[in-house]
Design a protein that fits this description.
The protein is an all-alpha fold. The chain has 3 helices and no strands.
Length: 107
């Protein structure tokens, strides 16, 4: 078996020579898994900022970096709460359109 492309919008740090699906002829294609940390609605901004600061510190620890880099295709981001909120809203919009366009329904 041979990998043909990665489904993320950017090349993987773990496999930099492997093109993206977008580079392979499907512009705009991005179907990459992601993980995020959410806090309850109304959490004070200073608490959210502190969580962000501590999580970024943890993500920069060598053993955490090593653990994630050993999982091919897993790139750590650690974006700000504002960047993550924008990303999350964009993901909801993108996948809502996919569901609508293909007519998927819950059974």
């Amino acid at each position: 078996m041979r990998a043909l492309a990665v489904s993320s919008i950017k090349r993987s740090l773990a496999m930099p020579d492997l093109p993206t699906i977008a580079e392979s002829g499907f512009p705009g294609f991005d179907a990459s898994p992601w993980y995020g940390v959410f806090a309850p609605s109304g959490t004070p901004k200073e608490i959210v900022r502190r969580l962000y600061t501590e999580i970024v510190k943890i993500l920069s620890l060598p053993d955490v970096q090593e653990r994630f880099s050993s999982q091919k295709g897993t790139d750590l981001v650690g974006n700000t709460p504002e960047e993550f909120a924008t990303f999350y809203k964009d993901e909801i919009s993108k996948w809502a359109k996919v569901v609508k366009d293909c007519g998927a329904r819950v059974e």
